[in-house]
Amino acid sequence: MNKQGILVVVSGFSGAGKGTVMKELVRRYDRYALSISATTRSPRPGEAEGVDYFYKTMEEFRAMAASDALIEYACYVNNYYGTPRAYVEEQLAAGKDVILEIEIQGALKIREKYPDALLLFITPPSAEELRRRLVGRGTEDNDTIARRLARAGEEAEGIEQYDYLVINDELDACVEATHRLIELQHQKASKNMELINQIREDLKKISEGER
Amino acid sequence: MNKQGILVVVSGFSGAGKGTVMKELVRRYDRYALSISATTRSPRPGEAEGVDYFYKTMEEFRAMAASDALIEYACYVNNYYGTPRAYVEEQLAAGKDVILEIEIQGALKIREKYPDALLLFITPPSAEELRRRLVGRGTEDNDTIARRLARAGEEAEGIEQYDYLVINDELDACVEATHRLIELQHQKASKNMELINQIREDLKKISEGER
To answer: Distance between CA B30 and CA B25 in Å, rounded?
Structure first.
C-alpha cells in the first residue's frame, strides 16, 4: 500500500464505548495506527506514558503548540489535550489509516485542516442503553451518572458535520461497521484521481493507435 | 423503512458496464427504484417506451422543462435527455433509494439541487480492459471503437466531484460494492439527526430524573 492513508476522527457520547471499539479495530487490522494525544492532565491510576497519553507540563504543552507540533488542541475540563503532528503525518505518508479519538471541538478543527478526514460519531442505540451501561459498571453513584448523562447530551453540538453515525449496539458489529466505513473511504473519487487520469491518458493513446 | 430514500447518481466511462450493474442491483434488492429518463432521441431497435426511456417530441420535452417537471436535463450528441421529477420524488418519499444513470453534466446539476445525493463513477480497471471489451463485442469497426474510446476519455471532466469510484472488474463484486456504498449512505450523520436529537433529549430527561 503506497497510497497516503486516511485520517479518521472518532468521537462519541461518553459511555458509548468508543475507546473499546478503537482498540479492537487496531488489534484486528494492522493497517490502522492509533494516534496518542498529548495532555496536561495527570495520569490516572493504571494509565501509562505513551500508551494512554503523552503527559506534558503546561509549559511543554505551550511550547508544542507554539512550534506547530500539534495539529489541533483544545481545553476540556481545565486540561489541555492535543494531537502531536509528527506521528500522524509519518503514519499517513506510510499508507496507514490513522485513528484519532477526540472531542467534537477538536474534530471540527481537523476537518478544516484535513478536508479529506473521515469523521465518525459513535453512539449507543438509545439514551436508556447508555444509562444502563453506566449503572451496570457499578463504579459511580447516581449523581455522577446523572452528570455524565447530562454532559453526554451537551457533547453532541456540531455532530451534523460528522460524516457517519455508527451505532454501538454490539461490539463486534460496531468494529466491523467502522472498518467498512474506513475501507470505503479509500474509494473516494478524490483519492483516486491518479487512476482516473491514467485511464484518460491511456484512452487517448489507444484511440489514436486504433485509427 | 419510513425514512426518505437516497438519490444515487451513477455515471461512468461508456463501455464500463454501468447499465448492467444497475439492472443487476435492482434485480437483487427491491429497495432500489431505477429512474427512467425522458429523451427526444428515437427508440433504437429493441428499446421500449417506459422501459429504456420515455420518448418525447422536442415540443413535449420543452413543455416538461418549462413546467419544472424535470429535475435536470442536458443536451448530448444533439438529443435532449432529462430526469422526470414526479417518479423520483414519489419513490424517495416512499423510502426507496432511487438510481439515476446519467452523464457527468447532469450529475453535477443534481448535486446542486440535492446536496445529499450520492454520486458514483463506474470505471473499468484500465483503458486497455475497456478497449478489450469493446473489441470483444465484435459489433463495431475499429474506427467506431477509436471514437468511443476517445469520447470516454473526454467524459471524465468533473469526476473529482463524485463521491466514490467503483471499479467494475467483475460484475458480481461491482454490484455488491455499489450496494454497500449506498447502504452506508444511510449512516450519514446528516441523515440521522432525528435519532441523535432523540438521544440528546432523552439524556436530558434521564439525567434530571437520576438526580
So the answer is: 9
